[in-house]
Amino acid sequence: MEKSELEFEILKSNRNRLYLLCGIVCVVVLLITIIVSNTFAKYRVTDSVPIINSEINYKVPDLNMVSLYVANEDGSYVEADTIPSSGYSLNTEHSHCGISNNGEIVKDDTVSIIYENGSINVNNITKKGTKCYLYFDEELPAADQILAGKDIQTREDFSTPVTDTTTGVIYETTDWKGTSYYFAGAPTDNCVRFGGFYWRIVRVNGDGSVRLIYNGTSTTATGTGTMINNGAKQQFNSSHDRSEYVGLKYTEGSQHGQTTDSPILNTLQSWYTSSNLDDYADYIDTSVGFCSDRNMASGYSWSSQPSSTINYAAYGRLDSNKSPSLACTTSDIIAEPVGLITADEVAFAGGVYGTNNTSYYLYNNQYYWTMSPYYFNSTGSYAVVFYVYSSGGFSNNHVHGASGVRPVINLSADVTISGSGTSTDPYLVS
User: Can you spell out the DSSP letters for 110-167?
Assistant: First the structure.
């Protein structure tokens, strides 16, 4: 009896050990199963997530996917660690994203890059391995940005049209405010985007403000697209039988008066308002004004009598002498937010009175007005002003004739601009 009880106890003990061992094995198998299952589940989830979505927002550029470069004062770029928070703009011409192919980046033109409030939004990345190279330019006062790196020259001969591609060159003269810098010929670096339109820079005025002429809705527009109201022709003034009607603003019986707006000025003002450019009034300088030079050519005295033929000063400078000037008497400065180009500015830009020029930036294959008086012809009893004709030279037209209208504005000296001024990277005003 004692032996049986002992055998039973041994058997029971062995069975308990077996149960314990089986339990341990089961637990180990279960743990291994859970770990393996979770591991595979993790990889399955990771594999199912797209590597790159359609939009990536970078606030801290510490990823290998982004390289940053900031412009030095000399125009060269140095690598940077952070995105500039203010005072800079993204150079959209140089910035790009792409994939390396044997050490060369193949640019992906479908990717867009937006720089706002110190952060970068990169949109439409669809390929693994895409890397972005971002270039930032310092925002400078407009005059400084335009003149930076330019070869400043002077011109002596204005009898021959300027047709050269003068990119990188700007010319120096004086106006009634000081030293003025103007573009001539066919530069590719005087494009501006402002107020929803594109413009070409005519010159930096002597006070640092910047004069722009309208170029429509594209940097490369030509023809009627460079003029307002779909290129509709406009009379300068419906009245024509007195010499004072050559004025953008005029006064009956007065050489320099400015009490009445001409019809063409009314057109300019109406377009300025309807185009919402008055919303940008803080950027536009009205104090520098526009010069309606109503002084007399040598040997002539002013008269408002229809029987008197008189020649204005611009006639004497440009018809035969070919000696333009940006000087202006105070009485002839018209303080408006919008005006027209002067005949002297056309001559500085490379136009010549009576000579065709289809290879300078003011050519648009259309007729359009300047604001410069030419003469009063007593024979036909009509007032005459300069205009640019369709072959790119300039001549004269009586004020009740019809030509196109290209508005001119002056950006304030304290506005900042960024960009390089090219057709693909026009200066942006900020």
Answer: T-EEEEETTEEEEE---STT-EEEEEEEE-EEHHHHHHTT-EEE-----SS---S--T
Q: Which of 237, 233, 374, 199 is nearest to 296 (CA)?
A: 374
Angle (nearest 5°) at CA 429 between 425 and 430: 125
Q: Which of 320, 329, 384, 377 is nearest to 352 (CA)?
A: 320
Q: How far apart are CA 296 and CA 73, in angstroms?
A: 47
Question: In the structure encoding, which two tokens stand for residue 172, read together?
Answer: 């120096």
Record the tokens describing residue 23, joined without a space. Answer: 């339990």
Distance in angstroms (rounded) separating the CA atoms of residues 62 and 11: 69
Query: Alpha helices, DSSP H only, in 328-428?
Result: 343-349
Angle, CA of 364, 406 and 400, to the nearest 5°: 100
Distance separating alpha carbons of residues 236 and 371, to the nearest angstrom: 9
Bridge-partner residues for 299, per DSSP? none
- Sequence spans of domains, the chain: 1-41, 55-138, 145-429
What Cα–Cα distance (Å) separates residue 348 from each residue in 179, 354, 406? 14, 15, 17
The 10s digit of each residue's pLDDT in 264-280 is 999 999 999 999 999 99
For residue 173, the cross-strand partners are 180
Q: What residues does 348 pair with on adjacent strands? A: none
Question: For the segment 122-171, what is each residue's pLDDT rounded down to a tens digit?
Answer: 899 888 889 999 999 888 899 999 999 999 999 999 999 999 999 999 99
Contact residues for 192 (Cβ-Cβ < 8 A; gap 6+): 198, 199, 200, 201, 212, 417, 421, 426, 427, 428, 429
Stated pTM of the model: 0.77
